[in-house]
Amino acid sequence: MANFAEICAILGRHVSASSARTIARMAITRIGVREHALEGLSDTGPLLRELHRGLDLFSVSPTARRLCQEQLDGLLGGKRAGAVGGAEIRVTIVDETHIVEARTRARALAVELGFGRTDQVKIATVVSELARNIYHYARTGQIRVIRSDAPRRGIVVEASDDGPGIADVELILSGSYRSRTGLGLGLIGCRNLMDEFAIDTAPGEGTRVRASMYR
Amino acid sequence: MARTIPIIKLRQNLIVSIQIELTDRIVGELKENLAHDLRLFEVSGLVIEVSAVDFLDSYIARSIQQIAKIAACMGTQTVLAGLDASVAITLVEMGADMLGVETALDLEDALDLLEARQAEARREDDEVVAAIYRELED
């Protein structure tokens, strides 16, 4: 079961910190559970309903509300069932707003998987860089973020597209070449921020990137 | 036209506080609006306040550097204020530092810094004028 701070952290991504605490506190008061007893709560259904209701009272955009509810469901629903599944996101990059969607959802997943604040920022940054490369160079493609349990616990970011591919990827990754658009900086940045980084690309054959961070 | 990010003039400075999720479109719009306002208000300082920004990728970091360069071209000094610790670590580790942009811990420090610079510049101006007068009198 999730604790109070984790619930506040997810709410706090969409409303202010004080509103987040208000919503969370209101919800647990209404279901009659104390803050420290949350860990032992077996049925999270009523709590989720109250959190959703609380969110409705605050003026967040419909998109943010839906996203926040999904994240809460992920946090409370996933752990209640003790299940491993469900911890996966997929975003198809077609226009610029999908870059924001991909990094926001990736970050929410990182929160859910228990990554610390700086790692959350790093993961969101990597997803943003890869999504942006897809949008700028291939126009469309897909971002997939999954949890990894073996060989080590962590998170894996995959970006794939059928775009033009990269001709001299070794040169770009060596840092001796800098494109005007910053492709090199983005890819080198991703490699620096993650524990593992692999890229598979050739001219005319699209690009596939796989980057992992372990806990 | 309504602006997504408001630009505030305070004495000799322009202040922008970024409190929303930055899309490429918003960053581009901010760049244009700032260049326009720098010309309009003829200020000497610009503060970009980012304490509410919990994420910066290389594109946005580069855009902020570009804004600072544009401002420098127009005689305005830029200070980036309130960069979040996790964001700073991420930027440095990925190699996308903020070189060339002066930074301050918060808005207050940024304004102090700019005002100190402005006072210094005024003093230098006064000295030059005084020197010219002395030469004329001799």
Question: Which helices and strands occur, and which strands form pairs?
Answer:
The complex is a heterodimer of chains A (215) and B (138).
Chain A: H1 4-12, H2 17-31, H3 45-57, H4 62-81, E1 88-93, H5 97-112, H6 117-138, E2 141-148, E3 154-161, H7 169-174, H8 183-193, E4 196-201, E5 207-214
Antiparallel strand pairs in A: 1-2, 2-3, 3-5, 4-5
Helix pairs in contact in A: 1-2, 1-4, 2-3, 3-4, 4-5, 5-6, 6-8
Chain B: E1 7-10, E2 13-17, H1 24-41, E3 45-49, H2 58-73, E4 77-81, H3 85-94, E5 102-104, H4 107-137
Parallel strand pairs in B: 2-3, 3-4, 4-5
Antiparallel strand pairs in B: 1-2
Helix pairs in contact in B: 1-2
Compact overview of the structure:
By secondary structure, chain A is α+β, with helices and mostly antiparallel strands.
Structure description:
The complex is a heterodimer of chains A (215) and B (138). Chain A is 52% helix and 17% strand. With 215 residues, chain A is α+β, with helices and mostly antiparallel strands. Chain A folds into two domains: 4-81; 88-214, Heat Shock Protein 90, CATH 3.30.565.10. A five-stranded antiparallel sheet of chain A has the order 1-2-3-5-4, covered by helices on one side. In chain A, β2 and β3 (154-161) form a beta hairpin. Chain A is elongated. The two termini of chain A are 20 Å apart. The model of chain A is unreliable at 79-85 (pLDDT under 50). Chain B is an alpha/beta fold and 138 residues long. Chain B has one domain (7-137): STAS domain (Transcription Regulator spoIIAA), CATH 3.30.750. In chain B, strands 1-2-3-4-5 form a five-stranded mixed sheet, sandwiched between helices. The longest helix of chain B has 31 residues, at 107-137. Chain B is elongated, with a radius of gyration of 17 Å. The model of chain B has no long low-confidence stretch (mean pLDDT 91).
